Amino acid sequence: MTDQNKLRLGVNIDHVATVRNARGSAYPDPVRAAKLAEGAGADGITAHLREDRRHIRDGDIDGLMAALSTPLNFEMAATDEMQAIALKHRPHAVCIVPEKREERTTEGGLDVAGDDNRLAGFVAKLREAGCRVSLFIGHEEAQIRASARIGAQVIELHTGAYCDYHYEGDYAARDAELEALKAGAALAHSLGLEVHAGHGLTYETVAPIAAMPEVRELNIGHFLMAEALFVGMKPAIAEMRRLMDEARDG
Hints:
Elements lengths: L7 E5 L1 H10 L6 H10 L4 E5 L9 H10 L4 E5 L3 H10 L3 E4 L19 H13 L3 E6 L3 H9 L4 E5 L1 H9 L2 H20 L3 E5 L7 H5 L4 E6 L1 H10 L1 H17 L1
Parallel strand pairs: 1-2, 1-8, 2-3, 3-4, 4-5, 5-6, 6-7, 7-8
């Protein structure tokens, strides 16, 4: 596999912080997890600072920025507070995601088409600060075209529905969702957007997404942190890396 064709793996360490916060303790430390993930072959680290600080906290972002040797992908809502934090730290990448206080995890993609005027200015400030801006969206054509129009450099396609259909056993719906993701990736690439994907991916579901030639990066967290409980961080990430590379080569 050439470096140009290699699919990057971003490891999300949010749920190490979830375990920490369950007891209000100082451990397990998300920064330590991020360093272990780097050593295991992660190409970058993703962390989502939610408005309610339910897992990652401000101090974690400080620690990650100081400790990481790979790029930090800072996930955040499109709020003034989060923009100020991103402008303070200037991480390599900022991924803007939809956020609702009552949700357990991110549900659906950002409505870029319905909020394009506000988001255009929001994205511009982050780009001026040197951040690579990604928008976490669904595969709908209107959302992809709006993302390109407002100046985002990257989109991250939401793979949650595809994964949910797989585990529900609705394989017809899963396959239809996969085809829609493929079409979305092709459209985004044609518009000059770099294509990433993520949400809910596991060993069972990663290969068809990894095989899409337009996709340059996958961001995977919850499954890898769960698997690491049983086998350790390095083996969990190594197996995901193997499956991604195998799908890419195929």
